[in-house]
Amino acid sequence: MRVLGIDCGGEYTGYGVVEEFSAAQGRRLVCCTSGAIRLRPRDPLALRLQQIFSSLSDVIAEHQPQMVAIEEAFYAVNVKSALKLGQIRGVAMLAASSAGLDVAEYSPLSIKSAVVGYGRAEKHQVQQMVMRLLHLNAPPQPPDAADALAIAICHIHTTATRRRHQAVSS
After folding, report:
1. Is 19 a catalytic residue?
2. Which fold has domain 2-169?
3. Is 7 annotated as catalytic?
4. Active-site choice (72, 105, 144, 147)
5. Residue 51 burial (C-beta neighbours within 10 Å; 0-12, 13-18, 19+)
6. Domain definitions of the chain by residue range
7. Is 144 annotated as catalytic?
């Protein structure tokens, strides 16, 4: 399974592609790519949204994920920021659906629990666990890329858990 995780943000939108392999030693997760789309806050919103769509479409075309995972919308104190984040999430989902991919959404609590084992984990703890789970030499940079990889890992772990539950109940 190959999953594209997307961490939407107003200044940086992180992305990361993780693939799960089955080996004699068990499952192994591998980072195919990660990075962040840097947005200039002074650019018009329409231009920033187009940049996100184009960049994510390029990542999808190059790395051929089978699924996209994204963080659920959360409540923000600033309504204007929440609206912009919603627009960015919408464009990320559009890039996925335009490529014929389904999108799974996960809460920040679920993502941290799946990766760190604790839903209130700090950002640096998520980076460290992503580094360990993907056998990387250094934490992914920028932090938005690590968050995107964590979202992809969350989807892979969640899917594996669901499969095990279905096998037991069958």
Report:
1. no
2. Nucleotidyltransferase; domain 5 (3.30.420)
3. yes
4. 144
5. middle
6. 2-169
7. yes
